[in-house]
Every structure is written in C-alpha cells, then in structure tokens.
Amino acid sequence: MSQDCLFCKIVAGDIPSELIHEDEHCVAFNDISPQAPTHILVIPRKHIESMDDSSTNDSELLGHLLLTAAKIARDKGFAENGYRTVINTNEDGGQTVFHLHVHLLGGRKFIFPPG
Ligand code: AMP
Ligand code: ZN
After folding, report:
1. Domain 6-106, classified CATH 3.30.428.10, yes or no
2. If residue 7 lies in a helix (H) or strand (E), which one and from where to where?
3. Does residue 97 have its Cβ closer than 6 Å to ligand 1?
4. Chunked in runs of 10, what are the mean pLDDT values of the chain (115 residues)?
C-alpha cells in the first residue's frame, strides 16, 4: 500500500466505492465520473503506479486484470455487443490516478482512435 494513493485507500476500504467485484488479486468498482452507461475500473490490490512501472513479474497479474474485465462484461451482458478496455499511462496517456487501472467501458458505441 502506498500512503497517499487514492486507489490503495479504496482497496483498503478507507474510501468508499461501489464495488462490482473483488478477489485475492484485484478489485473492481464503478468510476465516479462515468464516460459510458457502464464504466468500471479494475485495479490490482498491489500498488503499481502505471504500465510504465510494471515488469515481467506482473505478467500474471496484468492478464488477470484483463480477464476480470472480460468476465465482468460478460456477466453484465454487454460483451457480445462489445466494449472498450483502456489503460492510460503517464501524462501523454491522460493518466490522473497513479495506481494502475483498467477502464472497462460498455453500453454505447465507441469511436477509434480515441481523442
Ligand atoms: P485515469 O485518468 O486513467 O488515471 O483514470 C482515473 C479514473 O479514476 C477517472 O476516470 C476518475 O473518474 C476515476 N476516479 C477518481 N476518483 C475516484 C473515486 N474516488 N472513485 C471512483 N473512481 C474515481
Ligand atoms: Zn495505490
């Protein structure tokens, strides 16, 4: 846990969130400022600042985050229609919270490339 990290505080239950899923390795909760009808963040319990801070030691964990997002999309019923998974990294990538997270967005059509 990193002392000043917002998402570590959510993992610890010190800041409330609308929990969607939790397991040994990750937690998923609704984004506070949804950009789609469904907008969920899937985050590792372990504090990793960004993709730029990840390593091959995290291979299994990173796979688990994506597979968890895919399972949530199926469980919520929008997997067949489609969805968007996004990982923003550092300043140019638009990252604002420096605890790695996968955005899972569904329930509308997305354009590509994103802005
Ligand atoms: P990013 O810009 O990729 O770092 O994404 C950070 C996301 O965290 C944004 O979509 C925010 O809306 C979301 N966010 C910030 N604070 C909270 C919070 N307390 N609970 C849920 N989501 C949050
Ligand atoms: Zn953290």
Report:
1. yes
2. helix 6-12
3. yes
4. 92 98 98 98 98 98 98 98 98 98 98 93
